[in-house]
Amino acid sequence: METQLKKYAELLVKTGINLKKDQILVLRSPIECAEFARMIVEIGYDAGAKEVVVLWNDEVCSKLTYLKAPDALFDTFPSYLKEFYLSYVRQDAAFLSISASDPENLKEVDPVRIQRYQRAFSAEVSEYRQRMMNNENVWCVASVPTPKWASKVFPDETVEVAMDKLWTAIFKAVRVNTPDPVQAWEQHKDALKKQMKILNAYNFKSLHYKNTLGTDLSIELPAGHIWLGGSDFTPDGHEFIANMPTEEIFTAPLRTGVNGRVVSSMPLNVSGSLIEGFELTFKDGRVVDYKAEVGYENLKQLLETDEGSLYLGEVALVSYDSPISNMGILFYNTLFDENASCHLALGKAYPVCVKGGEHMDSAALMANGINDSITHEDFMVGTKDLSIIGITHTGEKVEIFRNGNFVTI
């Protein structure tokens, strides 16, 4: 186990963020993951980091704050945290985040309080968020098991067994179980980029999704859209992998070009609360109707975050027959579940998904049909019978997905 932990930590530092000598590494970690975080700190310094800074979070304290703090607190964001984010992002720091939480930690919390705090955060650190979305700084999101998360994923097991099973699943998902994880990721990046090049060559005008779950959705793509996948690059050519694991090829939709109905295929964990069995209806890009079997109020608050949260900001393709999907595990963690399923995202689009987008401000992006919002929330729509047809600018129909999987095109 110790050997695999070290391989994983080294993979995140040396391949995920591809840390450069004398670069600052900012690590954000739950306190439950302290042992692994300390390993990251050591490996970071061994790799030549100028400084390794750890920003700890405690979801129990967060819950208590949401439940008991004075109401006015949720319209503010601490000045010291604002300075933390802005100071390090301006120093070209690399940001590594450990995504691991109890999927139901905040189910008792008023979702309005969560939404208000997220608005305050986004407003105060807009420069940081913009640099992340533009890939101006390297960043990577990965996961480490925590007891409550593991018990949610494997409810019939003891905590110890559940933790072991979740570690095994994570190691498999990030290819740490292979003899040479770095080489395995090189091969994986190449495979994703081959699919990316094919989609970019077609330059589709729109995509049509359909399955027996009830999804029947048309998504127009903007002029100059770019499909991305595998690894990303900063403007100066620093390669990194934003999500480990990643199985997706993604782009931005045309803000006003989404029409029809989409039905979620997996539960969505939003800020510690689950939304299940939900569907959205779009007209001219905007959500005009929505339903949810569980978590309706949380879905409502997500959609009411701002005007942009009612529009899509990402279209991502993932084969149903893929490594994470084939595990047959519902992770209740978007980092994993979105890489087991085709997904869409409500909210902000990645500017790099349109030609020249990284040089555009918000107004220019909107003028080019690229959505803006203070949120970006992925939700899963892929199923084993999902069909996706691409329509070219000449009207040709090209089968992209059949029975949930990529078709060789």
Walk me through the topology.
Layout: H1 2-16, E1 24-30, H2 34-46, E2 51-57, H3 59-68, H4 79-90, E3 94-98, H5 111-124, H6 126-133, E4 139-142, H7 147-153, H8 159-173, H9 181-202, E5 206-210, E6 216-220, E7 228-229, E8 232-233, E9 239-240, E10 249-251, E11 258-263, E12 268-270, E13 273-283, E14 286-294, H10 296-303, E15 312-317, H11 334-337, E16 343-347, H12 362-367, E17 376-380, E18 387-391, E19 397-402, E20 405-406
Parallel strand pairs: 1-2, 1-3, 3-4
Antiparallel strand pairs: 5-6, 5-18, 6-11, 7-10, 8-9, 10-15, 11-13, 12-13, 13-14, 15-16, 16-17, 18-19, 19-20
Helix pairs in contact: 1-2, 7-8
What report would you give on this structure?
The chain is an alpha+beta fold. The protein has two domains: 2-173, Thermophilic metalloprotease-like (3-Layer(aba) Sandwich); 190-229 and 245-406, no CATH class. Helices cover 33% and strands 24% of the residues. It is built from twelve helices and 20 strands. The protein has helices spanning 2-16, 34-46, 59-68, 79-90, 111-124, 126-133, 147-153, 159-173, 181-202, 296-303, 334-337, 362-367, and strands spanning 24-30, 51-57, 94-98, 139-142, 206-210, 216-220, 228-229, 232-233, 239-240, 249-251, 258-263, 268-270, 273-283, 286-294, 312-317, 343-347, 376-380, 387-391, 397-402, 405-406. Strands 5, 6, 11, 12, 13, 14, 18, 19 and 20 form a nine-stranded antiparallel β-sheet that branches. The chain has a five-stranded antiparallel β-sheet with strand order 7-10-15-16-17, covered by helices on one side. A four-stranded parallel β-sheet has the order 2-1-3-4. Helix 1 crosses helix 2 and helix 7 (147-153) crosses helix 8. The longest helix has 22 residues, at 181-202. The chain starts with a helix and ends with a strand. The mean pLDDT is 96.
